[in-house]
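DUF2326 domain-containing protein, Sulfitobacter pacificus. Tokens?
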Amino acid sequence: MIRHIGSDLESFKTLDFGPGLNVLLADKSDGATDRQSRNGAGKTSFIDIVHFLTGGKAGPDSIFRSDELINSTFDMQMDVGGEEITVERSGAAPSKVYLNGPVEDWPIPPKFDEERGVFTLSNVNWTHSLGAKWFGLDAPPDTDIKFQPTFRSLFSYFARRQSSGAFQSPTQQASMQAVWDQQVAISYLLGMDWTISQGFQGLREKEKVVKSLGKAARSGELGPHFGRAADLRTKLAVVSRRVEQVREQLNSFEVIPEYSALETEASEITRAINALGEENFVDRRLISELDAALKEEEAPDSADLAKLYAEAGVILPELVKRRLDEVESFHQTIIENRRSHLGAEHVSAEKRIEDREAKKQILDARRRQLMEVLQSGGALEQYTAMREELGRAESEVETVRQRLETAEMLESTKADLDTDRNRLSQALRDDIHERNDLLNEAIVSFEDLSQSLYEQAGSLTIDAGSAGPTFEVKIDGQRSKGITNMQIFCFDLMMMELSTNRGRSPGFLIHDSHLFDGVDERQVAKALQVGAERAASCGFQYIVTMNSDAIPSEGFKGGFDINAHVLPTRLTDATEDGGLFGLRF
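Tokens:
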């Protein structure tokens, strides 16, 4: 229950509330519209103040951060957990609130501000505390749990705002409110198992992911082998084996610091051995030629020359014969000298070959020694390259593993999702069956309320749909804004009654004047009277903001006096200081 709303803004009009029905009235001058300024007379701003002081967002475009209000502090005295608490908050420091009252033992204990003599709490923890005190939520909530009821999602059903599109559907407290949030919040407030609605949203999230992955896989965006788990399983085995091999090589690898120098020496030895071999080849060829030459070096026989001349009929004189003998002797000498020279060359060549072979053996021995060292390890660069190769291979293994998991999920998830949906649907049917009495109470309450307004009662249908619980509200009649608004009125009042009975409510319900737009005067009168009667019988507070010209002049029954519920503070847009803030901006 809200008891008091005030501000240190001197022109602000203090509001004091009592139990039951409270009507905040605004006198609207002829031709005036709410678009004349940001705050008009202040009926909607009153609801903005309630949200602001219960931890609502205060972004840069909030009126509480406007130049006219940012230095003003607003306060509200209200019942929280059976205790009277006063909360203060300003647009200049919207991230914290100041509390006055017995709050020391709250789930999130506020800190005591010695300077101000009050407690202080962050705005986030303030909403968590209100969620715990008013709705029985955990404070602080488990942030690892997705799609759970929150203070704001529940509270907004008790203080709808026109600026959030709250008057479009009974089950939707804001135009941007997601279906899952509606299902979770309403299930929680009606006493149903809200975790089933949570489960359906989790299922929708999985289906969304599977659908996106399936689309990407079919389009080839995830690679040519993404869609087949069998192919990826084979690829994973191959790349995993490669990782093991590289890892084994690394484990046995020995880094040789002088590896490059030894490798260079081994290469130079190889080149030297090859050069010696080539030189031996040349000398062996020379020896072969020398052997041939030695065989051909024979002195010609002078008797053969004499015989040739005789056959030709030439008689050689004795002097010529003597000279031939001398020539033969000279020639023989030359032949012997040449044979001696060739023999020396032959020996020299063989000696060179022998020396080279000996040198080759020495070089070859050194090369074998070097190769043994080189084969036992490698250079640091090689080790580094192998580690990089291992990292690349391990990365490929992880990539393939993730793709395999996704592919397996794609192949198996559809069946799993169908199973989960069937399980949730059955759980929802069981929950509705088990809570039949509780839901019947809501259904009957809505019917009674709608029958209080119209001759033919409306209906609230709660069913187990394939996508979660459905809450269908109907009031027969022509589709009009007025009928929709009265559906919202009946739905909100029903929720307020049940929540109050279950101890899960803020203790007040606020309806903005927009709720009565387009509603027949007689229905407005009935709604106000029904609201007052239900508030009195159930023990909650019902606050309505209205323009004075929208107050019905007739339609009330049993001597009901609406003026007895009008707050003494009246707002007006006729003067600059007649609005709630006492100033226009």
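The mean pLDDT is 88.
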